[in-house]
Design goal:
The chain is built from two helices and 24 strands. The chain has helices spanning 3-15, 38-41, and strands at 50-51, 55-58, 71-72, 75-84, 93-98, 104-109, 113-122, 125-136, 154-160, 163-168, 173-178, 189-191, 206-211, 222-230, 236-241, 247-251, 258-264, 269-278, 282-291, 300-301, 305-310, 318-325, 331-337, 347-354.
Length: 356
Amino acid sequence: MSTQSSRRSFLGHAAAGFSTLTLSRLAQAQPTTEPPPRAAQIEHAVTEPVSVEVNARPIPNFEPRDRSRVRFGQLQYRSGLVLTSPYRGFGGLSGIRLDAKGERFLAISDQGGWFTGSIRYSGGKMIGLDDVEASPMLNSEGRPITEKRFWYDTESLARDGNVVYVGLERVNQVLRFDFAKGGTRARGEVLPTPPAVRKLPSNKGLEAMVVVPKGQPLAGSLIAFSERGLDADGNLVAFLIGGPSPGQFSVRRTEKFDISDAVLLPSGELLILERKFSWFTGINIRIRSIPLKSIAPNALVDGPALFAADLGHEVDNMEGIDAHVTPEGETVLTLVSDDNFSMLQRTLLLQFTLVE
């Protein structure tokens, strides 16, 4: 049996409940699971800037059962990579932001670290990563943020030019970094947020953020989404921080999906990456589209699903999404997975073209 088949067979059994080890951190999404101890969470923290070797194995087909299929909902599969590294701190990728060409990237690990580098392409397909560097996130004193109790679960990432925002889920705080002052060596300052942000569940807090650029409704706002902070009606809580109309709103929750990331397209379309996990159904992911113009304080927003996938596809714990536009005018979505530093999970980098 091939390695891929063996893995799928194992994950299939895990999804049916025969293993309590597979995807262990994903199981935290279940309300009855207690958060793991802090020591386990910062075991893979980056302690100093270092160049990182990253190996890439191509994923030729998104659905191995039907290798001729390339269209999945409103997405068309372009290419994918399985990323591995001998560096023990590589993994746990929970957010990614690309430059306008889709080449240079900034990513965060949920162990309080930055990863930077470039995606290498051939004929429009990803074939590897170059110049990868890992650096610890620094606090206002210039020390790694992981030195402070519970300041490690860095789950959300937003960028506005040289200004970078990172959300910490356990403590539900937002750090603001000015990359004009040293790039990933910049010091993070705590951004004031509404009191309701800090009342979110400690392991279901800030999971996705986007900055609204000039020319769009709500320009200047930082939109922050909780993973599973629920309002009185069971919908997902989100916040408008700063900008012209600060306040709180909700995203309709359906089919028990939680938010894992978001990206705002130039068209004003907000794409939300969602996931759910259970021992019976395994991993499910989807992407929903929400019009930015529908977001306002006290609003309940909703939108259609553009894409859905499960363990029958080449997915894992997909936690990051970003977009860029090619010279040909194609909108390309890039997704990255958090492997939870587990030998039974993978760090995947996937790209799709958004089609009508």
